Amino acid sequence: MIINVKYFKNLVFILFFILPVASAAPIGAMMRDGYNILSDNVATTWQEPQHYDLYIPAITWHARFAYDKEKTDRYNERPWGAGFGQSRWDEKGNWHGLYFMAFKDSNNKIEPIGGYGWEKTWRPLTDDNFRLGLGYTVGATARDNWYYIPVPVLLPLASVGYGPATFQMTYIPGTYNNGNVYFAWLRFQF
């Protein structure tokens, strides 16, 4: 098989120089638009809250397939603590919230977390009080074993709610003996 050198050079030039520059504009625009939407939603939730929320951490579960048994045997899975936030429902019926929580982590040390959460909300029954949610949270946490240096978080959110009460949850991904934690809390609107 004979390779045409001129053809090959042109292909390399297109793949490594033209395509990245051409595709950078749409990616940059998407990132800028996403940032603007996020910052606008955070500002609106801060300035125009419809509800105040009480957060009660309920359970931390370390995925048994991802941990040595001796570690899970000594880890705390009752995250005693509390939190406070403010939230709103947008015109599409989706939830936006700003929150701060502090709870006992896996090592029984206080862990603060705060941030912004968003959930797309569905009301599958004729009773509008019942709802399901799926979204994300972005914020920061700090842990004793990391010298309380703030660490950014971007995590999935899911929830089941009825009236002013919502059971909300996330999953913290990780590696073996680190992360892979299901964390859930109750959120009460007033």
Automatic annotation (TrEMBL):
It is found in: Cell outer membrane. Keywords: Acyltransferase, Cell outer membrane, Membrane, Signal, Transferase. The record marks 71 as: Role in lipopolysaccharide recognition. Its main location: membrane. GO terms for molecular function: palmitoyltransferase activity. GO terms for cellular component: cell outer membrane. Pfam families: PagP (PF07017). One of its GO terms (biological process) is lipid A biosynthetic process. The keyword Acyltransferase applies. The record marks 176 as: Role in the phospholipid gating. Belongs to the lipid A palmitoyltransferase family. Transfers a fatty acid residue from the sn-1 position of a phospholipid to the N-linked hydroxyfatty acid chain on the proximal unit of lipid A or its precursors. This is Lipid A acyltransferase PagP. The gene is pagP.
